[in-house]
Amino acid sequence: MFLTTYPLKLDEKGRFFLPSKYREELGPGLVMVQGQENCLYVFTVDDFKARTNQLLATSDTFEDVRAYRRMLGADASESVPDKQSRVTVPQPLRDYAQLDRDIIVTGAIDHVEIWNPQLWEQYRADQQPKYSNIDKHLGQPAGGAQ
Predict the structure, then answer these.
(1) What structural domains does the chain harbor?
(2) Degrees (nearest 5) of the Cα angle 68, 30, 120?
(3) Is the predicted pLDDT of residue 70 greater than 60, yes or no?
(4) Which of 46, 70, 106, 139 could staple 5 via S-S, CB 3.0–4.6 A?
């Protein structure tokens, strides 16, 4: 499980130190992809495979499904943290998420997200007033009726 928020920095090669609480789960390998709201999602390899298996079970006769597969796979990056537990954020993903030197690495329960600090603060400010009402959707099946 991924919890807590860490303000971190990218080095000149686009690397950051993986927070120690995330190392056990992500140390064997991770997949980094474009997320929603201009952040990046980081999954364990096994979780990413499970998610892509669900996607592959959906018919590619739907244009949205084909587009999603392409967008998900195009800039996806599979890697293993180095011996110092550093992870590289490839340039296309840095560009997508508008990452420069300062970054926010935050737990999202089943995955990690990487944010531009200004976008993160704006997102939090926008979502905080809605937070107390969001739980009405808990327990609803994914894609279920509202």
Answers:
(1) 5-133 (3.40.1550.20)
(2) 70
(3) yes
(4) 106
Q: Are the C-beta atoms of residues 2 and 109 closer than 8 Å to each other?
A: yes
Rounded to two decimals, what is the model's pTM?
0.89
State how far the Cα of 5 lies from the Cα of 11, in Å rounded to an integer.
19
Task: Please name which of 92, 17, 12, 79 lies closest in space to residue 42, comparing C-alpha atoms.
Answer: 79
132: which 2 tokens?
């107390």
- Paired residues of 32 in beta bridges: 42, 77
pLDDT at residue number 143: 58
Counting every residue written for the chain, the total comes to 146
What does the pLDDT average to over 120-136?
Answer: 87
Could you give the C-alpha distances from 45 to 26, 34, 117, 136, in angstroms and in order?
8, 15, 26, 31
Helix (H) or strand (E) run with residue 21 in it: helix 20-26
d(C-alpha 63, C-alpha 74), whole Å: 16
What average pLDDT score do residues 98-124 get?
A: 98
108 token code pair: 């999202």
Distance CA 36, CA 113 (A): 10
Give the largest CA-CA distance in the chain. Answer: 46
Q: What is the C-alpha separation between 68 and 55, in angstroms, rounded? A: 9
